[in-house]
Amino acid sequence: KYISGIALLCVALSAQDKTVTDAAITEGVVDAPLAEVWRVFSTAQGYKNLGVAQVDMDFRPGGLIRTHYDPNGQLGDEGTIVTEILTYDPGHSITTRIARPPKGFPFPTAYKTVWTVVTLTDAGSGHTHLRVAMVGFDATAESQAMRAFFERGNATVLEELQRHYAKPAAAANAAPGSKAAAPSRLRRVSIVLILSSQRSNS
Question: What's the CA gap between 94 and 49, in Å, rounded?
Answer without folding.
Answer: 17
